[in-house]
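ugh ok so i messed up the first submission bc i forgot one of the chains. this is the corrected input, ALL of the components this time, i swear. 600 residues overall. if the numbers dont match what u have on ur side tell me asap before i send this to the collaborators (the ones from the other lab, u know who)
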Amino acid sequence: MPVADAGAEEPGHVISLRGLVKRFGDTVALDGIDLDVRAGTVLGLLGPNGAGKTTTVRVLATLIDPDGGTATVGGHDVATDPHRVREMIGMTGQYASVDDMLTGTQNLVLVARLLGASNAEARERAAELLERFRLTDAAGKAVKSYSGGMRRRLDLAVSLVGHPRLLFLDEPTTGLDPRSRLELWDLIREQVAAGVTVLLTTQYLEEADALADRIVVIDHGKVIAEGTPDELKATVGAQRLVVRPADAAQVDAVAEVLTEVSGSEAETVGQEVTVTVTDSAVLPEVVARLTKAGIEIEDLAQRRSSLDEVFLTLTGKAGDDETTDEKDKT
Amino acid sequence: MTAATVTAPAASRTRKVGLIQGLGQTKTLAWRTIARIKENPGELGELAFQPIIFTLLFTYVFGAAISGDRSAYLQFMIPGMMVMTMLSTTLQVGQGLNTDLSKGVFDRFRSLPIARWAPLAGRILADQTKQIWGIVLVLLVGLILGFRPGNGFLGFLGAAALMLVFAAAFSWVAVLIGVTSPDAERVQMFGMVVVLPISFISGVFAPTETMPGVFRVFADINPVGNLLEASRGLANGGPVAEPLTWTLAWCAALVIIFAPLSIRALNKRV
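and heres the new structure output, hopefully the right one now
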């Protein structure tokens, strides 16, 4: 990528954030975010409502200026060289930002013309994108008659008019039904396959797991974890060891052993005792101690935590919390 | 990417959209607003209510009372009604802009490599078509009722052109209201607070001679009062030079003051 020659970024990184700070009045929306995205990959920015996901995207899309730190896109600083940044990005906002009163074709032609295409070129590009996004039948209809999924597809299509090398997707599937969500995922994967770098914000762990090469978890404007989906699952929250004694009266004794061996507090639900385990030596040790104490085990299992548990552990909140009424403008 | 990408940040900072390109983008964005009307022709019908009903009301309810003679009042009032219609139409610029801002459409425009002022200018340009529609409607109703511009068609055309120039300048006030208001309803409300006094205390519907001192002073310096006097002069005959100069000066002042304020408010709006 010749863009890497611009010097301000590490080789291969098309997006670099260093100590990014943004305040809204007294509220600190971004509190020193560091983040890198390698060319041609998908970064999932994950966090609960109000964590700073949208603010990060808005800074990168040159819509708001940061109050501190630097943000470079393709080697260009968003604060001092926004025009260059705008030339290589495509953005879809949290709420499909297409014009309701215009038709699908008109929305696409509008952006193509703004990007300098002739009328004929613009119509050609519009037809091509409508075809690819399966919107040809609705091309001449006003967007207000579109379904939620169609609107999102059109929104994505509009952001691709100028062949961007970087795509910012702010909660692209929030509020969509499962089928529309899968359709949109496929369309996003097509873009990645074509070499487009994607930064995607989401509250859905499943979405980050399905699309992202790397995940950055943010909360209260800070990065609290980073890694591939597998790394996150393996490192944070680690594994869950579940033990079920044959005799319900021995639950407390089991809990005591688990707490002692693992070093973290065991939880008891009914006849099941669960503990978080980070060390692989814990399991054989637990088995040895329980055997020695003569506790008969009905069931013993160790499994890797789901991304949901990781998220919960990290943020102290449920990841799929559907409080979408909150606008997440921060 | 060409070698141009590799220039030092300091050099590329100067890179901006040229004026010609910016004007082309303005034209495209104006097309958008006009395409919206084509998709929703009902909007023009809605726009027609106020000028038609106000013209009829003022002619038949106040006409004889104010002038003693309905047809004389019609000559006096029609240019005023056009100005009144023009002012309330400018509020549409603010409302449309506010809707774009809250729906995220404006974010899309701002993330494109286009001139920063193009989305605003495009809207103002497009709403001139609504202005022409309003002027034509009032003229038609006036003609049916018996309005005859004393200076003929050309004089009337001059007056209409002056109103359009003023509308474009005054739209920046509407833009500021549109950007600073939380929602479209509030744009209408704040807009009326501005538009009503400057249109009523100006001699739109009644001569200013009978107004108390403070109101008369306001009426004399009021940009709308000057526009009205110049328009009446152009359409019906009367002094033109002085009110025309004042009107154009006001137009320049409105743009110089409100365009930068609007753009600043826009950049501050998150």
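quick check: Residues 1-9, 318-330 of chain A have pLDDT under 50 and may be disordered. that seems consistent at least. The first strand of chain A starts at residue 13 and ends at 24.
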